[in-house]
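Query structure, 273 tokens:
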């Protein structure tokens, strides 16, 4: 089985471990490096995996997953230089660090190291992630196959050019927050028309889950599903008229454009102070 080293034991690292183990991956194939010793020990015991320093877990691993904050990436790359340089096998580096371009990895790692940059979202914790993979110039088909082996048990995976990752961030990365905001508004509205808060939460939660289930069916189209609910002159039609009149669609489009621009801004090289 492919040996995987995860560098970073924060929420993302823990979600990856949890999802991979739940998907049937053997704990013996997983290693973790986390700078917080207490955190590393707790996760090691929870999942039954080996923990160690970055060079220790990288040695002998087929895939090295970088799951640290963008500001910590350069330090991790420095620690990876020796084990990658001395490795007798081809090792793939994949990274979830937002806004860090592939060129930065390729410049900081030994020549010839294949890199795949990833953008995912928080539903990875529920094995329902939407993840996009952008291959570097040295990443070949077998490296994308390794990436798929690692991530497909955790949700959907698509391959995109790196230039599209800012848009992916705005749609998939930030997207769950848009859904949660809509859910919040629906709960507030339910309470305002007389429903008890506990009941409102239950109804909205299950409505979102049920709608998502229908949308996930083969060939489902959002516009068609909306039309199925909307009878001419009915309650849904009245509600949708108000949402359109208040600019919901335009607000969502503007929000995605703003998130895309902000992602591009965050990914620009910082001027030295």
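Result returned for the query:
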């Amino acid at each position: 089985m492919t040996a995987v080293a995860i560098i970073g034991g924060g929420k993302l690292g823990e979600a990856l471990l949890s999802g991979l183990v739940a998907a049937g991956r053997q704990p013996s194939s997983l290693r973790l490096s986390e700078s917080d010793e207490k955190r590393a020990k707790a996760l090691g015991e929870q999942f039954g995996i080996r923990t160690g320093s970055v060079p220790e877990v990288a040695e002998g691993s087929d895939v090295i997953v970088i799951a640290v904050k963008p500001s910590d990436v350069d330090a991790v790359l420095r620690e990876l230089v020796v084990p990658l340089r001395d490795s007798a096998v081809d090792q793939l580096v994949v990274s979830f660090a937002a806004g860090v371009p592939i060129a930065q990895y390729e410049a900081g790692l030994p020549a010839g190291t294949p890199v795949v940059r990833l953008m995912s979202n928080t539903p990875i914790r529920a094995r329902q992630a939407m993840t996009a993979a952008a291959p570097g110039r040295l990443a070949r088909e077998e490296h994308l196959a390794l990436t798929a082996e690692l991530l497909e048990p955790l949700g959907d995976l698509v391959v995109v050019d790196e230039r599209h990752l800012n848009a992916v961030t705005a749609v998939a990365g930030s997207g769950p927050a848009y859904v949660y905001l809509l859910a919040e508004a629906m709960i507030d509205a339910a309470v305002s028309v007389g429903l008890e808060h506990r009941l409102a939460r239950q109804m909205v939660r299950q409505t979102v889950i049920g709608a998502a289930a229908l949308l996930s069916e083969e060939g489902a189209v959002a516009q068609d599903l909306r039309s199925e609910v909307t009878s001419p002159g009915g309650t849904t039609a009245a509600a949708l008229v108000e949402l359109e009149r208040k600019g919901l669609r335009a607000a969502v489009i503007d929000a995605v454009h703003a998130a895309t621009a902000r992602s591009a801004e965050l990914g620009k090289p910082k001027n030295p102070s």
